[in-house]
Amino acid sequence: MTASNSPIPVVVNGAAGKMGRETIKAIDAAEDMTLVGAIDANPELLGQDIGEIAGCGPLEVPVLADLQSTLVVATQEQQQGVMVDFTHPSCVYENVRAALAYGVRPVVGTTGLSDAQIADLAEFAEKASTGCAIVPNFAIGVVLMQQAAVQAARYFDNVEIIERHHDSKADAPSGTAIQTAQAIVEDGKKFNEPKVQEKEVIDRARGAIAEGDIRIHSLRVPGSIAHQEVIFGSPGQIYTIRHDTSDRGCYMPGVLLAIRKVTGLKQLVFGLEKLL
């Protein structure tokens, strides 16, 4: 098998988490990919077969804690490797920098990166001529929701966003909510002109204020996966665009698409819509 048609070597960082396990199963089922590394910070899982942990049978890929040594393995394959990151906001920046330094292309599902960190990673990726995809949400339905919201914003002057996630999500608002607000105000429009002098009896009762004065309300409750509503209002009508996730498997077509697309990039792209 030549380098041009050999399977894409993939390292999954955060492999034993809920999204990591789904990604392991999806990569195992993909004929054009091969799993070469599984990284996780849980010390109780070190050395165990990640396939057994994910529920897809033995893959002969043990869970390791050392990301850099695994990235070296990904660079020794015939085709340049990809690192999929579903870890934590506190370490994702360092993870992506390390992957880029080794010439491994990152596909980042971890949210919580600051604008300054994304700008720094974009500069690093461009200098290294190495692709990088930062994707706040891999669900195709979310892309369609955001596109519908951009269209609606032309006709409504009031909009608020409600996002609900599981209680283990570390960052708020969600990257999807922030990205949605940014898309809505891309042409510089301002929303939600106040009609009264508001007073918050309890701090932040009205939510966080994003770009364009759009309010984002974040809920964190067990039993949820990922849900978002974009609510537009004008006199006499409410227009609600909603996306609900009931199974993390819905993200996998987007994850596999990003793995395939990032191998052809030489710079950082932000958002799944840039890869479709």
Overview of the structural elements:
There is one protein chain. The protein is an alpha/beta fold. It has eight helices and twelve strands. The chain has helices spanning 18-29, 50-54, 67-75, 92-101, 115-128, 140-152, 175-184, 252-262; strands spanning 8-13, 33-39, 63-64, 82-85, 105-108, 132-134, 158-165, 208-209, 215-220, 226-234, 237-245, 268-270. The strands form two sheets. A seven-stranded parallel sheet has the order 3-2-1-4-5-6-12, sandwiched between helices. A five-stranded mixed sheet has the order 8-9-7-10-11, covered by helices on one side. α1 (18-29) crosses α8, α4 packs parallel to α5 and α6 runs parallel beside α7. The chain is elongated. The chain starts with 7 loop residues before the first strand and ends in a 6-residue tail after the last strand. The mean pLDDT is 94.
Helix content: 25-40%
Question: What kind of sheet is the major sheet?
Answer: 7 strands, parallel
How far is it from the N-terminal to the C-terminal residue, by CA? 28 Å
* Radius of gyration, whole Å: 20 Å
Strand content: 15-25%
Number of strands: 12
Shape: elongated
Number of helices: 8
Supply database-style keywords.
5-stranded mixed sheet; 276 residues; 30% helix; single chain; 7-stranded parallel sheet; 8 helices
Task: Indicate the topology.
Elements: E1 8-13, H1 18-29, E2 33-39, H2 50-54, E3 63-64, H3 67-75, E4 82-85, H4 92-101, E5 105-108, H5 115-128, E6 132-134, H6 140-152, E7 158-165, H7 175-184, E8 208-209, E9 215-220, E10 226-234, E11 237-245, H8 252-262, E12 268-270
Parallel strand pairs: 1-2, 1-4, 2-3, 4-5, 5-6, 6-12, 7-9
Antiparallel strand pairs: 7-10, 8-9, 10-11
Helix pairs in contact: 1-8, 4-5, 6-7
